[in-house]
Amino acid sequence: MNPYLFWLLFCVVMGGAFGVIRAANIFHAGLCLALTFGAVAGVYALLGAHFVAAVQLLIYVGAIAVILKFAVMLTQHIDQREVRHPFMRGFSTFLVVALFAAMVLVVIFNQQFVTAPYDPVTDYVGVKAIGERFLSQGLGGYLLPFEMVGMLLLMALVGAVMVASKEREKS
Fold it and tell me: Is the pTM for the entire model greater than 0.70?
């Protein structure tokens, strides 16, 4: 693992999270959230969990961030709304993020990480095995929850369109 690339991705994750907190516009906060999710996927890929990185990109960046952007774009006058809270001022936001980052770094550097013995030949679970388990219908399969989540996301999107169309009819 390249430590320089890891620290670069760490800075991108923290910068994106800071952008989500600090953004005055909801759409810009959504873009920063997508950047953060993408950088987290990069950390997963750097650690060798390529399947988890792909799932992170597909589900979080590809689905949740896009649905967030659809919801933002469907509401009227979103570009005129600015989300400001008295706490969300520059110095206080920086202070909270810096304290959290310092706390995370202290925990990371004081932790005694122990690696479990890993045999790549016997302990390897391939993407094919994960896919078969994910799409199996029997006991321990995840096909039904997968379909239920898809239906829930579809209903949420249809509901957002209906709410946005009712707001347009009123004005």
Answer: no
